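Entry for zinc ion complex. Fields follow.
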Amino acid sequence: MLIEKGTIVTESTSFQGDILISGGKIKEIGEKIEKTSSTTKVIDAGGCFVFPGAVDVHVHMELPVGPGLCSSDDFESGSRAALAGGTTTIIDFVTPLRGQPLPEALAQRKEQARKSLCDYGLHMSITSWNKHTASEMKNCVEKEGITSFKVYMAYKDTIGLEDRELIPVMDTAAKLGALVAVHCENGDVIKYLQEKFLSQGKTSPRFHPLSRPAAVEREAVLRALTLSAAAGCALYIVHVSTEGALAEIAAARLAGQKVLAETCPHYLLLEKKEYLRPDSAAAAYVMSPPLRPKGHGAALWQALRDDVLQVVATDHCPFNRKQASHPDFSKIPNGVAGVENRLALLYTYGVLQDKISLNRFVEITASAPAKIFGLYPRKGALQPGSDADILIWDPAYEGVISAETHLHNCDTNIFEGFPIKGKPRLIIRRGKIAYEKDSVMLKKGAGLYIPRGAPGLYP
Ligand code: URP
Ligand code: ZN
């Protein structure tokens, strides 16, 4: 297959050129490549950008959140939506029950993930610590290609860890050369504030952000930085939402600490005022951390430009209206959809509004996440030898985001009505047409589990 006449964009260069694909891999990239044989399929990418297939390192497909309740996209529907938006690789999570052996939880999760259309990897969440955990973590790294572990400082009643449990996780990860991804919110303060509001009859979703104020994130970020510095482990802070958290991360990076961080489109583009909607509509915006007051979004864009943040992922974790409705805000399942909309939102509101360059767009959505999570240069790169995961992006498209038309298995979209410019025109995944003429061409199960290598401490 030969892709010709497009503008090839990587994290560091842009040029008009061609890409030759053979055996599912990129064979050659150059300004002008001749057809190698009469059977070479030629794709004219004239007028389009040619990006590496995007990588979303933070998604929760069919995440169990309570008895009989899972996030509403399973690996099939969620990965189909991801592909339609330009993402060819996802990394989801194994979330063991407390005390459950990690290999058992991993085997169960791999069975669910086999439905994926996207190529996929898995982070291992550590939800409790026992005498087997260190050796099971070693097994993850050495046998399973799982080189990142996720811990939660919130959700202490279910999956969150105390500091005394975070320390051995970080110590073990440091010895294994693995990355620890942390959900930074002070779980004890949140629980205290939730109980206080509920005891005062303040049960509406508008109390969700008030029960998780900005300081709750900043304090947890500083604590995670303190613990990981002591343990000597590399840290990745997920879904950063506040200016205060950015200040802590920037200071740590300046001091030479190995810390990388991500934000999500909703923190860049939406604000806390969404919770003032009627309760049934406001419930759709319940995610953790919550949306923030005006001002934090601008700080997050600046942090993307300054490399205080390296990644924009989605934390895709949708719930339908019915699943999300509950008279007590603390019982509304946390999470929102976004995997399909990430690129169009960042292109429209980032690149076209001069908040980030086109190269930075590729970097934060594809190459940096691939580097950080040990996928590069197989994924997130346009280089000879890389998987031929290629996104041909039509910048002329104009449309509007809507739950009526998105592929997310979710009856709401928090970006409903947002005008967008640009969308995938054609996507190739490991050399095969994955998306063409507005249709996903890959079938259920077409994705491959990708064992990951050592985290790249980018830059
Ligand atoms: O609200 C969120 N973020 N839901 C998904 C689970 C998590 O906390 O990452
Ligand atoms: Zn998450």
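NOTE: The pocket of N-(aminocarbonyl)-beta-alanine (ligand 1) is lined by residues 60, 183, 287-288, 315, 317, 334-335 (CB under 6 Å).
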